[in-house]
Amino acid sequence: MASSATLDRTASPIAPIDVSRAELYEGEEWQAPFRTLRAQAPIQYVPDSAFGPYWSVSTYKPIVYVEALPKIFSSSWEYGGISVAGSVDAPKENEVRQPMFIAMDPPHHTAQRRTIAPSFGPSEVAAMKAEVQKRTAEVLDSLPIGEAFNWVDKVSIELTTGMLATLFDFPWEQRHKLTWWSDMGGNVELMKTPEDMATRNAALMEMGMAFAALWQEKAQNPGKDLISVMLRSDAMNHMSQEEFIGNVILLIVGGNDTTRNSMSAFVWGLSQFPDQRAKLEADPSMIPNAVQELIRWQTPLAHMRRTVMEDTEVDGVAMKKGDKVCLWYISANRDESVFKDADRIILDRENARRHLSFGYGIHRCVGARVAELQLTCLLEEMAKRRLRANVIAEPERVATCFVHGYKQVMVELSHY
User: Fold this and answer.
1) Contact partners, residue 107, CB within 8 Å, separation at least 6
2) Which long-range contacts (CB under 8 A, 24 or more apart) does 276-284 make?
């Protein structure tokens, strides 16, 4: 994507727009600034933000280009990792850099991903379906009809933490700790100040102690769970404590937030597009494609970050070694050059599966099939019961530019 007319950092046609500001996501006000960036400055240098300077990449094709070049655009934890929050140079006070395979470059990334990936293969995910259907049915059958409740707590969190507890063979009665640790691990706002970072570190240390005990237990009595899979692997059985905790955070945040927030987007999004909800209710065969479209429309992780390893050029824009690059999946999934009428949910959208919500290239989400399975089962079990979740209030959203999600979506259930 090189150009003969290379531009420097200051050459943007418009003033810098800092789309890392938490209020844009808390108030669901991110669409307009990204629309401006896509039209006028799809690759823009932002010299000043709460997380330091960064490049903002907001259109589909340049994101795919960057993701396809991991040797030039590093994910490594050593340079600050995968979110805008990590510093490029020396760690900030109380900033703990956690190795995890999503925040590694080849060959270490390749070996560790190869260990985990078979647990999420097609046959393994197919074997999970009966259990996911059973748990989804139990949760839905426990819900009140015609009474207000928070869908995020009663459905999205309950289903995703149950899946995580199953994957890790984590103590069932303590499964809601997984939600708390996921919230702390994925909240980049807690990486702005030393005090907040210390709070986050304490929560993650608690998580590390709980999983270290589980590691010891599985060393004595291994099973089919993810901890046992790591223990049997040459690539992962000698991990340092930091690396083990990092990979647990990755699997918890990845396994929780993506699915949880897509489940919440299902009820909120379709309440905004009742014509699409009616089509789905009339034709459940649309569910597989509807799942892809809902994941595209929501984009549960707003961005991933890379660090430039050598001076390079993207679409005629010069980037310097050490620069921080934010790939805004949330904007690419609304890129009108790829997705026509992109702000709308269109459940039979022909190219919905082209979304970047799971990333692209070597770091594409290893658990994507599990997320799709959980959301598919939810839609299927809702359809079997002819249940509709009627949203009765504006959602309360997560105030962060990394995890794009919901704290509360109040609903009342009815039959259709």
Assistant:
1) none
2) 276/345, 276/346, 276/347, 277/388, 279/347, 279/348, 280/347, 280/379, 280/383, 281/383, 281/386, 281/388, 281/416, 284/379, 284/380, 284/383
Instruction: Indicate the DSSP class of residue 397.
Output: E
| Residue type present at position 365 | C
User: What tens digit of pLDDT does each residue of 180-204 get?
Assistant: 888 877 777 777 777 877 888 888 8
132 contacts: CB under 8 Å, gap ≥ 6: 163, 373, 374, 377
pTM score, whole prediction: 0.88
Residues 136-150: tens digit of each pLDDT: 999 999 999 999 999
Alpha helices for 221-316 (secondary structure H): 226-231, 241-272, 274-282, 287-298
**Angle (deg, nearest 10), helices 176-186 and 241-272:** 90
**Any idea what DSSP says for residue 284?**
G
Find, among 132, 157, 63, 114, the residue nearest to 369 by Cα. Answer: 132
Q: Supply the DSSP symbol for 233.
A: -
Instruction: Give domain 9-415's CATH number out of 3.50.50.60, 1.20.120.530, 3.20.20.140, 1.10.630.10.
Output: 1.10.630.10
For 329, phi then psi, to 5°, come to -55, -40
Question: Distances in Å between the alpha carbon of 288 and those of 271, 280, 291, 348, 357?
Answer: 19, 11, 5, 10, 16
Domain layout of the chain by residue ranges: 9-415
